[in-house]
Amino acid sequence: MEPGSGVGRRSPSSSSSVSLSHAAVAVCMSLPLRRCSHRTMSTLSQTKELFRRADAVCFDVDSTVIKEEGIDELAKFCGVGDAVTEMTRKAMGGSVSFKTALTERLSIIKCSREQVNKLITDHPPQLTPGIRELVDRLHQRNIKVFLISGGFRCIVEHVATQLNIPLDHVYANRLKFYFNGEYAGFDESQPTAESGGKGKVISMLKEQYSFKTVVMIGDGATDLEACPPASAFIGFGGNVTRQQVKERCSWYVTSFGELMKELEKI
């Protein structure tokens, strides 16, 4: 039976019904890597300048704002860690399409709502050191902060609340469950459920808010490919190093303290 078909005894419900404290698990997958176009490719000094005068800064979540790759943690919890971890590695490197990696990994895990809730209760996501201070400093400078994740909205909203980021600044996917709590897929209507989704969100933000300069920060291929339309991309390696991402960005940092220091130059 297909989720949402309305056939049979079960019908799916969105994971939005899960409370923020029992959030669904974030996922961050990626697409084939590509550089920013020649027109927008920036040098190190240009990227730093764009960051200092940004109208908005967008962060990836898994392995960037938080330490974990949430889908791997969920897989381990459900007893299928080995089967999923290798797929995550390929996805983050850009060798598997976003939607394929997401669909296949979740079909292996087939997590119930109860399992997701228990995982988050027992193993809540851990913020990366320095992110709280960096977000506070950006807010102090009236720079808008957004979370754009290939993961799931409930956990990202939970993280956003900890960082005082408005929930309408969160863009992520949603897990779906049947009314009996069994896994029923994910909401494919979200822009982040498709290839190039983070770039689509950034384009929308630029149009909606009339932003001139938007910077994307993240560890994976989906973050890198969001430039353009992002004005600049900053690679983050504080939790994990994606060698292909590191090689393709003009500014690669391993701690949020490096970004804090750059803001002090204003």
UniProtKB/TrEMBL annotation:
<dbReference type="Pfam" id="PF00702">
    <property type="entry name" value="Hydrolase"/>
</dbReference>
<protein>
    <recommendedName>
        <fullName>Phosphoserine phosphatase</fullName>
        <ecNumber>3.1.3.3</ecNumber>
    </recommendedName>
</protein>
<keyword id="KW-0479">Metal-binding</keyword>
<dbReference type="GO" id="GO:0036424">
    <property type="term" value="F:L-phosphoserine phosphatase activity"/>
</dbReference>
<dbReference type="GO" id="GO:0006564">
    <property type="term" value="P:L-serine biosynthetic process"/>
</dbReference>
<dbReference type="InterPro" id="IPR004469">
    <property type="entry name" value="PSP"/>
</dbReference>
<feature type="active site" description="Proton donor">
    <location>
        <position position="62"/>
    </location>
</feature>
<dbReference type="GO" id="GO:0000287">
    <property type="term" value="F:magnesium ion binding"/>
</dbReference>
<keyword id="KW-0378">Hydrolase</keyword>
<comment type="similarity">
    <text>Belongs to the HAD-like hydrolase superfamily. SerB family.</text>
</comment>
<comment type="function">
    <text>Catalyzes the last irreversible step in the biosynthesis of L-serine from carbohydrates, the dephosphorylation of O-phospho-L-serine to L-serine. L-serine can then be used in protein synthesis, to produce other amino acids, in nucleotide metabolism or in glutathione synthesis, or can be racemized to D-serine, a neuromodulator. May also act on O-phospho-D-serine.</text>
</comment>
<keyword id="KW-0718">Serine biosynthesis</keyword>
<keyword id="KW-0028">Amino-acid biosynthesis</keyword>
<comment type="pathway">
    <text>Amino-acid biosynthesis; L-serine biosynthesis; L-serine from 3-phospho-D-glycerate: step 3/3.</text>
</comment>
<keyword id="KW-0460">Magnesium</keyword>
<feature type="active site" description="Nucleophile">
    <location>
        <position position="60"/>
    </location>
</feature>
<dbReference type="GO" id="GO:0005737">
    <property type="term" value="C:cytoplasm"/>
</dbReference>
<dbReference type="InterPro" id="IPR050582">
    <property type="entry name" value="HAD-like_SerB"/>
</dbReference>
